[in-house]
Amino acid sequence: MSFLTPEQVALVEEVASLLIARGETIAVAESTTGGLLSAALLRVPGASKYYAGGGVTYTLNSRVALAGMPPDAYANYQGTTPDMLAALAEGMRVRLGATWCIAESGLAGPTPGRSGAPPGRTTMSVAGPVARTAVTETGLADREANMIEFATRTLRFLRDVIREAPAR
């Protein structure tokens, strides 16, 4: 029995195949998925060929320590913005020497964020040969359901961005 949904299994197998075929690596900076992205990527045998490392950057201190983000980037912090998350993804990618980095941060719930943003919203950012950031909302306030859905949507987002990138 897998700890991942069938869609997550299919997504991560495709991501792993793409990365291995291209000779590329991935780093992870995740927050509200709580390690699910890394666990999914490490599920595939041979993950050491493409997984460069990562961290659960759940707190501002962890973003500074693990991804090398400048502390002043979080002055008057009211929640993650797309620009902030893109910088986090790029910082972790560079820090770990990876081809790509997927970063995710949002509001799993059940309560709204500091800025009043609703639970069930997350921002996803890919840094690498193609850089892209998107915000998605589940419409749910259930913390666990959001964590699982955020992981699925982030893996789907990563797969789509890698597919679009020209082979090196």
SSE blueprint and pairings:
Elements: H1 6-22, E1 26-30, H2 36-42, E2 51-56, H3 60-67, H4 82-96, E3 100-107, E4 121-127, E5 132-137, H5 143-164
Parallel strand pairs: 1-2, 1-3
Antiparallel strand pairs: 3-4, 4-5
Helix pairs in contact: 1-5
Structure overview:
With 168 residues, the protein is α/β, with parallel strands linked by helices. The chain has a single domain (6-164), classed as Alpha-Beta Complex (Maf protein), CATH 3.90.950.20. It is built from 5 helices and 5 strands. It has a 5-stranded mixed β-sheet, sandwiched between helices. The relative contact order is 0.19.
Distance between the termini: 36 Å
CATH superfamily: CinA-like
In what range is the share of β-strand residues?
15-25%
Any guess at the CATH architecture? Answer: Alpha-Beta Complex
Number of distinct helices:
5
Shape: globular
| Number of extended strands | 5
How many structural domains in the coordinates?
1
Strand order of the largest sheet: 2-1-3-4-5
Task: Give me the oligomer status.
Answer: single chain
Features:
single chain; 168 residues; alpha/beta; Maf protein; 5 strands
Short description:
The protein has 168 residues and is of the alpha/beta class. The protein is built from 5 helices and 5 strands, in the order αβαβααβββα.
